[in-house]
Amino acid sequence: MSENATATAAATERKSDAAVTTEQKSPAGREIARRDTAGDRGRTSIADIVVAKIAGIAAREIDGVYDVGGTTERVVGKVREVLPGTGVSATQGIDVEVGERQAAVDVSIVAEYGVAIHQLAAAIRRNVISAIEQMTGLEVTEVNVTVHDVNFGDEVEPSGSSRRVE
């Protein structure tokens, strides 16, 4: 084989290696999705937590979402808010599965009273899909929305009741 043919074969092999995607475990035991793009001069790795944060922020942007997460997650979130040096987790109520080129997202929310839940879920889906696809290049195969509760707000009081404390 000529020197030029050997160099071409080596370059082709490097390009095919660049298109390989693998999954590894981080030191904390969380899976890290590695998404490598062919033709780039290096590798791009996107961790699951990154996709989860993008989804969490996108879900919170929608009017009608009172909070994100189930009951237990929200209680833990309230405790985190009180502790110094911690804050609300952007991944609270979000579960993701990230593959080579695709991602699936589960979002748990508390809706505000009076909002059409089917329209709220559709808006969350659109925003989450758009944010993840634009920021990561991953194809979002599904966004499942679970509504755990409805928040009635502080100003709503049962009819006929009077305030005990003013």
Automatic annotation (TrEMBL):
Coiled coil: none annotated. It comes from the Bacteria. Residues 1-11 have a biased composition (Low complexity). InterPro entries: Asp23. Residues 1-39 are annotated as: Disordered. It holds the Pfam family Asp23. Belongs to the asp23 family. PANTHER family: ALKALINE SHOCK PROTEIN 23, HYPOTHETICAL CYTOSOLIC PROTEIN-RELATED. This is Alkaline shock protein 23. It comes from Gordonia malaquae NBRC 108250. The lineage of its organism: Bacteria, Bacillati, Actinomycetota, Actinomycetes, Mycobacteriales.
